[in-house]
Amino acid sequence: MPVRPRHHGTATAPGCRTLCALGLLVAVIAAACSNGGSDAAPDETPATTTVSADALAAGTLVDIGGRSLFVQCRGTEGPTVVLEAGLTGDHGTWQLVMSRLPTDTRACAYDRANIQSSDTAPTPRSAQDVVDDLQALLTAIRAEEPYALVGFSFGGIFAQLYAAQHPDAIGGLVLVESNHPDEADQFEAHLTREQIAADRAEV
């Protein structure tokens, strides 16, 4: 789908924990934003070697099958909050958000292929390529379901597609100023042919 950029002492059920984590995450994102803030599918089966918690906390490259993606996870308990950055953003997009989450909320931010420390991948890339990479990454780090996906801007496209294709693995979805899958078509529906040509020439 090509898209142009423009505890109370007792254990809680996974679904409840995910909703609580999402509620907290929305509040943290709102606070962080107010202060400012700084892709071919894998060819092989991801490595089965366990990635240590210390390595993930520091940030590390993880093999997803012939290529590696950089990922950083903070917190060690509960379902995983997956943070998806914008068009050219990297894991650093979420540093302020992650620093304000409690330690019992596990949150992971990563760099997509061709961004920062992650390996390169053939271009052009589709949203499906990104979703396939993310699935391989979450499998490789043995992330606990259900996932809470957070997609910012262009990253919202990938979060929506992942949620649509893996509904049983999703406990919640947060879209932060997300692009819409039909955004380009809806935008151009309000332009003249001359305006469309001029707009496309700028990309």
Task: Tell me what the structure shows.
By secondary structure, the protein is an alpha/beta fold. The chain has 7 helices and 6 strands; from the N terminus they run ααβββαβαβαβαα. The N terminus is likely disordered.
Q: Distance between the terminal alpha carbons, to the nearest Å? A: 18 Å
| Strand proportion | 15-25%
CATH fold category name: Rossmann fold
Helix and strand content put the structural class at alpha/beta
Q: Roughly what is the average pLDDT, rounded to an integer? A: 78
> Which range best describes the helical content: under 10%, 10-25%, 25-40%, 40-55%, 55-70% or over 70%?
25-40%
CATH class: Alpha Beta
Could you spell the SSE succession in H and E letters?
HHEEEHEHEHEHH
What is the total domain count? 1
Which homologous superfamily in CATH is the superfamily? Alpha/Beta hydrolase fold, catalytic domain
Largest sheet: 6 strands, mixed
Q: Uncertain regions: pLDDT < 50 for 5+ in a row? A: 1-21, 26-41, 43-47
Number of strands: 6
Q: Radius of gyration over alpha carbons?
A: 18 Å
Layout of helices and strands, plus pairs?
Blueprint (H helix, E strand, L loop, with lengths): L13 H21 L18 H6 L1 E4 L4 E7 L6 E4 L10 H6 L6 E4 L16 H14 L6 E6 L2 H11 L4 E7 L6 H6 L4 H9 L2
Parallel strand pairs: 3-4, 3-5, 5-6
Antiparallel strand pairs: 1-2, 2-4
